[in-house]
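User
Take a look at the entry that follows and flag anything odd:
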Amino acid sequence: MAFEGLSSKLQEITRKLKGKVRITESDLKDMLREVKLALLEADVNYLIVKEFINLVQEKALGQDVLKSLTPGQQVIKIVKDELVELLGGQESKINFTPNPPTVIMLVGLQGSGKTTTAGKLANLLRKQGKKPLLVACDIYRPAAIKQLQVVGAQLNIPVFSNEQSKDVVHIAKQAMSVAISKLNDIVILDTAGRLHIDEELMQELKNVKVNVKPHEILLVVDSMTGQDAVNVAKSFNENLGIDGVILTKLDGDTRGGAALSVKKVTGKPIKFAATGEKLSDIEVFHPDRMAQRILGMGDVLSIIEKAEESFDLEEAEKLEKQLKKKELDLNDYLVQLRQMKKMGSFSSLLKMIPGMNKFGDIKVDDKEFVRIEAMICSMTAEERRNPRILNGNRRARIARR
C-alpha cells in the first residue's frame, strides 16, 4: 500500500521523542533530518520537502508541549497539519453544472488507467444519485472502445461509441445529444492517451475542450510512476489546464511521493483516489484522512462510510435481534461475510483502524474468506442452521465439494 515506508519512518521518529518534556532545537534538528530523508525516500519533490521542513521547524521550534500531549504527539500534530496542507487542505468536489449534463473529460498518458477509472468514477457518481453516460473517445488504442463497453456492461452503465468516426470532437458532440435525449446528467469522456506527452495529443484534447466545453478536466495519474507522475501533471496543466487529479494504483507497492507533490506543483487538487482493482475501489480524496493514514492514526470515518454503503439496514436490524436471542447461525455469518467483502480487502480495512500500525504490515489473504464462503455454501440448510450436527462424514462430504 502507498505510504507504508513513509508511514513507518514517521511513526518511528515520534516514538524517539517520547519522555521529553520540551522539544529542544537539537531534538527538532535531528527529527527534521529524519523526516526529510523519509520524504525524499518516498519520492517527494526536493523543493517541496525543503519548504515542508522549514514550515514544520518554524512552528515547532521552542514550543512548549501542550499539557494534554506528549512531545511526540505535539510534533506529529504539527507534521500532520502540514501534511494536510500539502495534500490539498480540504476535500475538493466535482463542480456539477445547474444545467445538466455535467461533462467530465478524463485525460492522461496511456497506461495510467483512464478507461477503468472512467467506469469507477461513473459507478461512484451513480451511487450519489447521478445517471452517467460513458463515452469512448479513444479511437487509437486497439480494443479501447471494447474495453470501455465491457466495463460499462459490468456496471450496467450505458456507453456511447461511434467506431465509424475518427473525429473525436464529433463523437463527443454526438454523445452530448444522446445524453440530453436519455436524461443522463453526467457525461464522462474517456479520451486517448500516448506513451509520452506530444503536440498531437495536446492539440486533440484542446480541440475537445474548445468545442465541448467540459465542466471538469481530470488528469488520471499512475501513482506508481513516482516523480514522473508529477512531471506529467505539470505538463498537462500548463498545456491544457486541468481542474483536478485522480490518483490510480494507490494500493500498489508505491512510495506515494506523487500524492504529496502533485497538488503543490500544479496547484490543482487531488479529487479521487483509486485504491484497488475492483470497479468499486475508488474514493473521494480527503487530505486530512490521508494524512492520518500516513501517520498511523487510522481512518475511522472512511470505515464508517464504507459500512453505511455496504451494509443492509434491514439485515443489520435482523442480526441485532438474533444476537439478543443468541440465535446466530452460519447463514447469518455468510450474510455478514458477503457484506464485509463489499467494503474492500480486509488488509486495507485493518490499516484504517487506529493503532493497528503497531503490529506492522498486517496482510490478510482474502482468498481464505472465499474458501470459507464456499464451505458454507456446500452445506445443507440444516447444517447451516445447526453446525453441531457436522460429524466426520458430513465434513468429508463438504470437503469433497
